[in-house]
Amino acid sequence: MIISISLRRALADIRQHFPTQIMTTMVVSLSLLILTFFCLFSINLQHFVERFGNELGVVVFLKQGIPQERIPILYQKITGLKGVEAVKYVSPEEAFKRLQSYLKDEREVLEGVDPRFLPPSFEIQVNRAVFNLARIKQVAGEIEQWPEVSKVQYGREWIDRLEAFSGIVRKIVAISGLLLMLTAAFVVANTIKLTVYARQEELEILRLVGATNSFIQGPFLIEAFLQGLAGSGIALSIVFGTYAYLEKMLGASSMFKNFELSFLPWQYVAAIISSSVILCVMGTALAMRRFLRL
Amino acid sequence: MREGDAPAIRLKGVSKRFGLGNLALADIDLEIAKGEFVFLTGPSGSGKSTLLRLLFCAERPTSGEISVDEMNIGTLSGAQIPLLRRKIGVIFQDFKLLNNYTVFENVALALEVIGLRPDQVKKRVKQVIEGVGLGTKLNRKAVQLSGGEQQRVAIARAVVNRPPIILADEPTGNLDNKRTEEVMLLMEELNARGATILFATHDERLYQNTHRRVVRLEDGKLEAAQ
Ligand SMILES: Nc1ncnc2c1ncn2[C@@H]1O[C@H](COP(=O)(O)OP(=O)(O)OP(=O)(O)O)[C@@H](O)[C@H]1O
Ligand SMILES: [Mg+2]
User: For the residues A149-155, what does the mean pLDDT come to?
Assistant: First the structure.
């Protein structure tokens, strides 16, 4: 009964205060829009850093003239290391071919050169979750001790830089995300507070003619719920539209072919919607509380 | 007052002080029996509105005991206040209408809060509004009414749920003689149907030729006047 009365009164109320309702919804969606865009950006940045890190492999150069039968044994040994995802053997002939294609038009310089002059090598792809920088250093050091190995290369500077960069990025993202969240919460809570205060007289009169607090609060809370839902829905739709557009643009351009965008995971979407709803409903309930005492 | 019947309103040693300042009401003792019609008079600022506000719990007394319809106001919890207010129809000195609501909506509010069905609300509200002579202005917004019309809407809202107790704070302050007479007749009628009425006014003409009890406030102190 109280729910149906509240719903009916909420509808009448929304009709009567339509401009204010739209304003509040806009404020909610704009505040969330900034936050949501930021989430999209930081998630894609994180993915990019991760993917880039995964592509950095470890290369083990073998000494010249290793007997062929030793190759599979070494292959097994490397594959057996914890955190190694894939190992590829690059024979001297294959290395020569790569060099040729790299040199393109200047490949004449290789004429007459023995196609076996380059050392054979293993290219190792590591799981970045297991292989942090310290572990890579350690494993590289171990492999370097093997008698068949001449050198281990692991893009040391790159890893160092990447590690430092993603560490800073993670901190910046966390801090600005938190600040954006606080700002959004502050703006939304204050907008709601002002709209409730603007109707203070109405609340007092309702109390004076014998309305219970739930009767008074019902429609307000339903409206807040709808504002939270609509506000976050609008923000997420705009961000999704932008995402879909960018995705299409990137797919069409050859330059960013390998650059994949991803949308917010559903947990983020759920968190944004529910925190928006909770913020609006709680903000309304708190703002109303002081007018419902006497 | 009939023997053994609890009074509708009872104040015992009630004082009200605002902040650290003046005593708006000082040691008031007052009993009003069920079905009684009492005039509360006194000059401006003597504490009439304050006394009424204590009765429907818009203010809490600084000291003393108040009971209304056998409810002890002092121990009333926040959740019980609405129940008290549904027993009391208050005509506010400053009307307290919702300006952007229509006449109908303003009066209907008092019935909606007690959960009456919409069709019943409609019937009763129309009846009462016609009773105060505003039948043609049902859908007018409260701001678009004259002071006297607003006062009559306030009266309609106070009586629409047929409360056993009516507190009227200068309900004729903005009305001409004819309307004043109509309101007095309405009050008499409600009283005849059993409502207890406490009628605050400083208009002597209203109680000059009456057999009703008149109590007088002077600087927050109560004195029997008639
Ligand atoms: N909220 C308040 N805060 C401080 N003082 C108040 C408050 N309400 C009333 N008073 C004071 O209490 C005294 C009594 O006020 P009250 O409104 O009860 O008078 P009244 O008899 O109704 O006057 P009037 O005939 O003009 O309506 C006045 O001196 C007033 O200034
Ligand atoms: Mg007064």
Answer: 82
Q: Name the minimum distance, in Å, from the CA of B200 to any CA of chain A.
A: 18
Chain CA centroid to CA A102, Å = 35
Per-residue pLDDT, averaged over A244-264, amounts to 80
Residues of chain A with CATH 3.30.70.3040: 57-154
Q: What is the ipTM of this complex?
A: 0.89
Beta-carbon separation of B85 and A210 below 8 A: yes
CA distances from B102 to A131, A195, A235, B130 (A): 73, 21, 37, 15
Alpha carbon of B93 to ligand 2 centroid (Å): 6
Q: Whole-angstrom Cα distance, residue B70 to residue B123? A: 31
Between 3.30.930.10, 1.10.10.10, 3.30.70.3040, 3.10.180.10, what CATH number should domain A57-154 receive? Answer: 3.30.70.3040
- pLDDT bin (cut points 50, 70, 90) of residue B194 is very high
By Cβ distance, the residue of B83, B96, B100 closest to A208 is B96
Ligand 1 centroid – CA B182 distance (Å): 28
- Which residues of B are less than 8 Å from A208 in CB distance? 56, 58, 85, 90, 92, 96
Q: Is the separation of the CB atoms in B158 and B117 below 8 Å?
A: no
Looking from the CA of A148 toward its CB, the CA atoms found within 13 Å total: 19
pTM summary value: 0.77
